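Tutorial sheet, problem 5. The four components below are modelled jointly, 1368 residues in total.
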Amino acid sequence: MIRVGIVGYGYWGPNLARAVAETDTAVLEAISDYSAAARERAFRRHPSARLIADWKDLVTDPRVDAVMIATPVATHFEIAMAALKAGKHVLVEKPMAETVTKAALLVDEAQARNRVLMVDHTFIYTGAVQTIHGLIADGRLGDIYYYDSTRVNLGLFQRDVNVIWDLAVHDFAIMDYLFAARPVAVSASAAGFLPESPENMAHLSVYFDDGALAHLNVNWLAPVKVRQTLIGGSKRMVIYDDMQTSEKVKVYDRGVAFTDDPREAYERMISYRVGEMWAPALSSKEALVSEVQEFVRCIEANVTPYNDGESGLRVVELLAAASHSTRLRGQPVEIGELKRAS
Amino acid sequence: MIRVGIVGYGYWGPNLARAVAETDTAVLEAISDYSAAARERAFRRHPSARLIADWKDLVTDPRVDAVMIATPVATHFEIAMAALKAGKHVLVEKPMAETVTKAALLVDEAQARNRVLMVDHTFIYTGAVQTIHGLIADGRLGDIYYYDSTRVNLGLFQRDVNVIWDLAVHDFAIMDYLFAARPVAVSASAAGFLPESPENMAHLSVYFDDGALAHLNVNWLAPVKVRQTLIGGSKRMVIYDDMQTSEKVKVYDRGVAFTDDPREAYERMISYRVGEMWAPALSSKEALVSEVQEFVRCIEANVTPYNDGESGLRVVELLAAASHSTRLRGQPVEIGELKRAS
Amino acid sequence: MIRVGIVGYGYWGPNLARAVAETDTAVLEAISDYSAAARERAFRRHPSARLIADWKDLVTDPRVDAVMIATPVATHFEIAMAALKAGKHVLVEKPMAETVTKAALLVDEAQARNRVLMVDHTFIYTGAVQTIHGLIADGRLGDIYYYDSTRVNLGLFQRDVNVIWDLAVHDFAIMDYLFAARPVAVSASAAGFLPESPENMAHLSVYFDDGALAHLNVNWLAPVKVRQTLIGGSKRMVIYDDMQTSEKVKVYDRGVAFTDDPREAYERMISYRVGEMWAPALSSKEALVSEVQEFVRCIEANVTPYNDGESGLRVVELLAAASHSTRLRGQPVEIGELKRAS
Amino acid sequence: MIRVGIVGYGYWGPNLARAVAETDTAVLEAISDYSAAARERAFRRHPSARLIADWKDLVTDPRVDAVMIATPVATHFEIAMAALKAGKHVLVEKPMAETVTKAALLVDEAQARNRVLMVDHTFIYTGAVQTIHGLIADGRLGDIYYYDSTRVNLGLFQRDVNVIWDLAVHDFAIMDYLFAARPVAVSASAAGFLPESPENMAHLSVYFDDGALAHLNVNWLAPVKVRQTLIGGSKRMVIYDDMQTSEKVKVYDRGVAFTDDPREAYERMISYRVGEMWAPALSSKEALVSEVQEFVRCIEANVTPYNDGESGLRVVELLAAASHSTRLRGQPVEIGELKRAS
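Model answer (structure tokens):
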């Protein structure tokens, strides 16, 4: 039985607490938050968990085996590092840290101490993304041509991060999980329409080492909420629409192909394939619960989860490269460039 | 009564011919096409129009007052120039020409001869775009923040132009009509997934002189057809979805604003406005017929249409700049740069 | 080569004429309409067809092999009977006649003279209905439980027929084609909200001899156009939405079943199956053209089409029974009752 | 401060408990359920409420002012009557009772003891229904022609009630609130496709005293969930789609009207009005919380809520009449008939 401590009981912490409570192999040992009101809320829902004001007391508590961190991004590094140094396993909210350097230090620390370091890329545990992953792994989509995502809504304007770190992070994590190809460069342009606020709208292009192209459209100032991703493959194409209550994933047997037409020797013809559509049944298990269970399993079996620190680091590299590109008015920034510099 | 000659009776020519036939103030005098089969088709639908094989005979025909050109892009310049030199008024398909220089020469020629030169930006005559134009002109959207368009479908792969010249041209023409602000730079990235074919997928960013930002997503290799544009304004936002059979234009009374909250002196708060949605009734008059009528009216009244040669030239400048940017891996290209160079 | 004459060139006649023109095995010989304006329109599109004012001259014309009738319902019987008596094959618009007696007389006449009598149930030739037919015939839906159709829109208010004869006729024809079971009774309630106009809204229930139940909701006074049918089977269920541009037919692997649960010996449990959805690729061939080709094929091969006079008669029986039920405030009317009475 | 006791902590009881907890003017005093597991769940969420096994102890508890009943329908009467006789105010789940007689007895008892008796018609407190109520009250829809509701989904098959008592009850409650007109008769047909289970599919027609017509389509065996209601008025029409996350209510400025056309003296013409659509902003306050607050307000102010016992009784009358009609194969049953008989 893994004893879990949660740091931060604001927006996301309660979800983590509930997921731990629903996991047979874990017990919710302690919750820390500087806010007395937050601790009061935590007590009403989890009366058996100890409430702690200062996270430093939680991460060093000998009755805690694993620490989950749901605090503002800027604090992730300090808390996670302290927990790792205290010998705890760590699940940290995404993005893992606000710089590549800090993310890399966490990876090194976890490795040195042989601790599980997981980044909360919740989406990869959804039935939808799991199913798409299977389709790609089975070769049913063929070669991946593109990933095209629209992730827009009205608000919430964040104060500490811009729309890239808030929304594009989801797509970076999903692509990191789905694709074998690795990003080589990112180009991004962003705009902020409210003075003294972080950028609220951005368009990002990600170039992969196999020629695939990803594009992300993120926006806090849209009239409606859209969560739609098109994935184009040489054999089939997918629409993943997270706003649908059913049929979130649709697989289209459509595409183009060359045909050699003997009548026109000097040119190659394009034929269109407009076949059936298929919406697979998706697992309805809650993603966060699956993720917490996987975290516990990795601790107990001493294995590495997919969304480990390396994965979190790769996502931070993309975020940092995208931010850098926005300051260059969209000039592509190569992945690895920032890492080497730091 | 304006006597019209149509050059090219392939895909679009029949639509022009029908629109002329439905216009009381014009008569369909002649149709030219090198293909005998095309002329046969034209005869069956328009038995009273004279059929001509060589367009050169049509553009110099004294019984023709105005020439409409529906041929491949690469031929627009030669035919339009010959028609203008023969003293004809000209309606030419978009894009007006394949280079900025050629487009500018047509503008000069039309001006020198005091002829009407119109570019067939059909969309600006739709009830939807007319209505959005009215909303912007009335100030009901407030300041324009962004224009975000998705224009994707499966095929048709073009042979002579890439997806930018085929699809983005529509958005350039619509923005040219809707916005008072002028583009200052374009950034574009494109990819082609079929060898020896033009690029079939592109993402374009257009930077305006008032800070507004446009983004276009065009793709010939998508599983479904999408024609959706979001327009964000400081007061209201619009979704224009051309695939809807009704309610193509939805106006959302939504947005964000700063509020000065006396309780927190040192920070400015953001408030969200989630008000009603309104779908205005749109004119159902066919856009192409409205456009042909406007063409005839401008000839008769000796006035200039909105979508004149200058407008067509501005659109070609954007197309050329976007194409140039794709060759620079998305580096922004300033508008005017190419013009001055040529 | 079958020589076709068309009676009536108003709303639907031009579609028939065009479909004949697209059929290699038929030639459009003549068109009749009392209106000179209609004949003028016909001439412009079909200059080689002879134009005739009086349909009596067309149906007896020796150069005509087959007559297609697209006139108001009240005239179908007289024209079709005259054509059959003159030895012509007949394709008549639905509903075939305005009474069961008249429909039965046409069936008898066609049989006595060994002529093809087809009723224009166009929908059964669509790719969508053809596909659903195949799914049912293959047993993939299992036993049919219900057919539930919503067919509403704003207008057109008809003058000569009410909404049942105008819209429910489509569902009656589709069900006649899809289902092996036969209707035994119909219950219908109707309302008219405009004085001195036919009923514009109706709800109909059809009881089948195998226990299946159909329900039709038809309305000329709805704010939006809906064309949606749910078909529930013991194995799978279908949604047929004719307003979709793609994915008109969706097949759901969903349902309920009893499970014998050993833990609860005294009760049988219900389990739910929520499986995948599948949208088969549909033929995009125009239904009317397929139907005209089938009409010609049946004439040439001396065979009977599915939508023959018997099928048309069955549909008229349902319409008459439904109308009768509305006058009884929804009391069920047995099929065959009216027939025997007449 | 009203002290509330809740009877039944199964599916709906926890929602009532949470709503009470969110109401400043009420306190959750006690919860009763025969199931120890249910009481354990209740304790974890509401540790300060007393847990009681037998409802009889709760309804007579002097520390309880008001009783909320969330138990199976068949038990409503006994529990509510006991609570009223003990002088408690009562909020009872819908349907209020399983017979008209029992419902009427509860109304009489509440009146005799001057207690508030409310039936939990939650939907009438939603922002959507409140807004439609306002549109009708303001005369913006004009005369009401029809109410047409589709309320279908897959499962849950109920054991104790059929689909009419489970789903149509919502529409009966909504119509009771929206319309000034009163139902005069109900016709219903139902079918059950699973042996030994209650009917799972039904179609109901409700005839109103002003000529309006309602139709309800309810079904537990549909492939997808639909919650859609069309309301047709002489001036405007409404679509209320509860499955939409935004724009649940759309108001269409559409309809038909007679026009006197001088050119055709002997007939009256119909004109169509296809105007704008408008989706009002809806209150997002949770309906159940609003309802509980209204319950408390009525107790404190000694006033009668809209959804009082009389309203609950009217709904039960409709349910009973519909059930009766299904046994008569859809023959209309007059409202009041059953009441007088009982």
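Marking note: Chain A has ten helices and 15 strands. Full credit if you identified this.
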